[in-house]
Design brief:
With about 425 residues, the chain is of the alpha+beta class. The chain folds into 2 domains: about 200 residues, no CATH class; about 190 residues, no CATH class. It has 13 helices and 10 strands. A 6-stranded mixed beta barrel has the order 2-3-8-5-7-6.
Amino acid sequence: MFRPYEIFIGLRYTRAKRRNNFISFISLISMLGIAVGVTALITVLSVMNGFELELRSRILSMAAHASITSPSGIEHWQQIADLASTNPDVVGAAPFVKGETMLAHGNRVSGAVLQGILPAREPEVADVGQHMKAGSLKALKPGEFGIILGHELAWSLGLDVGDKVTVISPQGTITPAGTLPRLRRFTVVGIFEVGMYEYDRGLALVDLEDAAKLFQLGDRVSGVRLKLNDMFDAGRVSRELARRLPVEYRVTDWTQQHANFFRAIRTEKTVMFVILALIVAVAAFNIVSTLVMVVTDKRADIAILRTLGTTPASVMGIFIVQGAVIGLFGTLLGALGGVALALHVETIVPAIERLFHVQFLSPDVYYISELPSELDWPDVWRITTLAFFLSLLATLYPAWRASRTQPAEALRYE
């Protein structure tokens, strides 16, 4: 614990005018360096959190929180959906049929994942209906062979609403002439755009019964998709459902289906944190040079304090207080700046773009053309704690040097 006079003298040295103004300048630079580093770290991590949240919401607007599948298909999907719905965390369930196909229009051909859905129940598990550029999910009716394409897929095939497209299934039909691919003409009844290239370029939606006929599944479906009350509980809920279902059924969740993607984002955040933390460390260790010069400048004062009975530990405490004050003010200033910038980055960036007539994220190149930001308070506490800890660490050596000052040596030439 610091004694009152140690705190008083440490604060006095911090705010008093020094004979050497250069020391005051270095102290200010150290404080501002810590503030800039903390501000940058909070802002960058908030923007990365915003990107992760935006990408996650776009992915989950098409992908279910959890899925129940079986290698041979599910014949009585309604029973499986009802069983899953008994879990209080499950808020929606819908069947689906899924398979890889080729789409052909004129001389253009493109691969796509064909997904059969039940239009009446699809809104329970996905938000694709909210991203329709043309048409609606209600246009998918059994037996009419309508199809809804992603925006990029429709553009690559030169299709629009009302056009015909040939869907080629890899499951062939056996004839005397050999195995022939199954072909079916579909009518484009809608186009969606969710802002994720994976879906906009490679996904087509059709009615559940039409997809089952195309893939020769009969009354079976590929699986049942689930929506949960809290998507972050997907792992736990999936394990609970897997224990209740027969062994031939498999339950997967969105964290497994997109594990590599979100693992890459976490790795990038960790690396960015380490890199920017080094900026804070450099600024914090500027306190070393500041306190070394202060100790040199105050050698006579230290000698007088020692002759008055001040212990080496008390002298060390005085300079730790001085360095801690520099680090504390720098950290608080950086935290305030970082929080303010993170909360208003979505307003500040467009203003900068208008002022300098530039665009950081062109909508022609990037799906996310605005910088999103999501302030995470635990990140703020970790960053401020790290900055203040590094500031305290930087005070130890100069304070120890001050405590080793010998009064006779310091006062010899005074």
